[in-house]
Amino acid sequence: MSASPIEQPEVLSASELRALLLQYRKENWQSIQTPEWQERIVDDILNDDGVSILRRLSDFWQMPSGALILDVGSGVGSFVVGCRRQGLLAFGIEPDRIGRGGRLTSIQIARRRLKGRVFAAALGEKLPFSDHSFDLVTMNQVIEHVGDQTAVLREALRVTRGGGAVYIACPNYLRFYEPHYKIFWLPLLPKTLGRWYLKLRGRNPVLLNQLTYTTNNRLRAMISRLGADYTIIDLHREQFLRKCSDLSFTSRRAQFVAKAARLPGLRRLINWAALLFLRATEGGCEMMILSQQRSTNISC
């Protein structure tokens, strides 16, 4: 007697997706984010085409034809869905241990957005793929949630092909803001004080226990320790320098800085000071790692 094939539920309609996303946010983010923020984030997810990352990378890296893409920490699947709609072969992994841990998980929603085996439950510290399997590995707002950041970076690089790229975006905890709770936050506030502060604000500190503070310099240092086979590109830095060059800033203050940097003898000093200020105040870190060659010998 032959086994019956496993039936996959129909792909979610737009209204069904919105309802499930609202349910997910309510179950997992209650007392972490206000209902108003939860609804706003759901709207952002629904309006996101999922591929803005690819546009940012295109200035520095050419994706090969037939590229394989892995999204580590794929959440509800927006990036993978966006890539698939563009005809790109993208897959996602998600442990789904963020927030309070409600009955409805993000990977359950992601699997309802596409047909086929596209999303897998796995940890970034131990990716279930062979060496050099993917041309692009992305980690968008993920690395601050993992237990062992170095192990996750090492694994991402291990599964990246020679000439491939790893994209990382995460919050900058030198800023006076906590982007998950959406509240004022002292830079690198000790967790003990942070839990006390959250309780005073009527917030559940469960998510704080799952966070590892990240900064631009900390992320760069971790990547640098993984070996010399990789080129690190700070996308925020490159964007800033490009706008300085063509004076395309919208802010008058930034335009003044860019013009001052053109004065003889002041360019290096002003750019250094401006980049230092940027690293301390910008909302997040955004980096790309280019793999120069195929190598499994990654030093810790």
What pattern of helices and strands is seen along the backbone? HHHEHEHEEHEHHEHHHE
* CATH level-four homologous superfamily name: Vaccinia Virus protein VP39
**Structural class by sheet pairing and helices:** alpha/beta
Helix share of residues?
25-40%
CATH architecture: 3-Layer(aba) Sandwich
Please outline what is shown here:
With 300 residues, the chain is an alpha/beta fold. It has one domain: Rossmann fold, CATH 3.40.50. The chain is 38% helix and 15% strand.
What's the helix and strand layout?
Elements: H1 14-29, H2 35-47, H3 52-57, E1 68-72, H4 78-85, E2 89-93, H5 106-111, E3 119-120, E4 134-140, H6 149-158, E5 160-171, H7 191-200, H8 216-224, E6 230-234, H9 235-246, H10 252-260, H11 267-281, E7 284-291
Parallel strand pairs: 1-2, 1-4, 2-3, 4-5
Antiparallel strand pairs: 5-7, 6-7
Helix pairs in contact: 1-2
Structural description of this entry:
38% of the residues lie in helices and 15% in strands. It is α/β, with parallel strands linked by helices and 300 residues long. It has one domain (14-235, 283-291): Rossmann fold, CATH 3.40.50.150. Strands 3-2-1-4-5-7-6 form a seven-stranded mixed beta sheet, sandwiched between helices. Strand 2 (89-93), helix 5 (106-111) and strand 3 (119-120) form a beta-alpha-beta unit. The chain starts with 13 loop residues before the first helix and ends in a 9-residue tail after the last strand. The model is unreliable at 1-6 and 295-300 (pLDDT under 50).
